[in-house]
Amino acid sequence: MLPIAIVYHSETGNTARMAELVAEGCRSVDGRIEVRLMTIFEPDVDYLRRAKAIIFGCPTYEASCSWQMKRYFDTAGPELEGKLAGFFVSQNWPGGGGASVAELTMIAAALVRGMLVYSGGITQGQPYLHLGAVSTRNPDADPLYRERCLHLGAVIARKALELFGA
Ligand SMILES: Cc1cc2nc3c(=O)[nH]c(=O)nc-3n(C[C@H](O)[C@H](O)[C@H](O)COP(=O)(O)O)c2cc1C
């Protein structure tokens, strides 16, 4: 089995729903993928130590990642090092809400923690992920937002299998 963790912050449920879809995308790739979801408030550190990939999600706050997610990275232990990392973000204002900055802030933190950052970019087909998966509010409101989350899960799971095997 190949363990993947999804670590997220969500106050009103939009990022939590994205996390469920990302997990579904991971599981769709291969029966050997094991996925566990956890919030930043209750990280399963034993599982994170075993995980080969960790996918992080948070809302956009003040055109960046939520301060709660930033605090998670600031206080995380060595369990993140060497893992493949992917990212998803919820926002309220498409075209200027700051989701890309939120993603880049998490990406910087993941690099500082020694993670292997990946999105597949525009190489893995549509919907293009660029820095990661972005949704405006609830991802079920638009098929594109749902597809981005499913695609992110699948892209990270495939790359984790390629890099680490099952
Ligand atoms: C304190 C605060 C600041 C926010 N700042 C932004 C922002 O700068 N840009 C934006 O698009 N949405 C902003 N939002 C909206 C949230 O990103 C959006 O509602 C998101 O879907 C919430 O995710 P959640 O349901 O997982 O908590 C803000 C929300 C809060 C509570």
Question: How would you describe what is shown here?
Answer:
With 166 residues, the chain is an alpha/beta fold. The chain has one domain: Flavodoxin domain (Rossmann fold), CATH 3.40.50. The protein contains five helices and seven strands, in the order E-H-E-H-E-E-H-E-H-E-E-H. Strands 1, 2, 3, 4, 5, 6 and 7 form a seven-stranded mixed sheet that branches. The termini are close together. The structure holds flavin mononucleotide. Flavin mononucleotide (FMN) binds next to helix 1, strand 3 and strand 5.
What is this entry, summarized?
Helix content is 39%, strand content 23%.
Summarize the SSE layout with pairings:
Blueprint: E1 2-8, H1 14-27, E2 33-39, H2 45-50, E3 53-61, E4 64-65, H3 67-75, E5 84-91, H4 99-112, E6 116-117, E7 133-136, H5 143-164
The helix content, as a percent range, equals: 25-40%
Work out the oligomeric state of the chains in this entry. single chain
Number of helices: 5
User: What is the arithmetic mean of pLDDT?
Assistant: 97
Succession of helices and strands: EHEHEEHEHEEH
Report the strand count. 7
CATH architecture classification: 3-Layer(aba) Sandwich
Largest sheet: 7 strands, mixed
Strand content: 15-25%
Q: Write out the CATH superfamily name.
A: Flavodoxin domain
**What distance lies between the first and last C-alpha atoms, to the nearest angstrom?**
5 Å
Query: CATH topology, what is it called?
Result: Rossmann fold
Rounded radius of gyration (Å): 14 Å
Which outline best applies? globular
CATH class category? Alpha Beta
Ligands:
flavin mononucleotide
- The assigned structural class equals alpha/beta
Q: Please mark out the parts with pLDDT under 50 across 5 or more consecutive residues, or reply none.
A: none
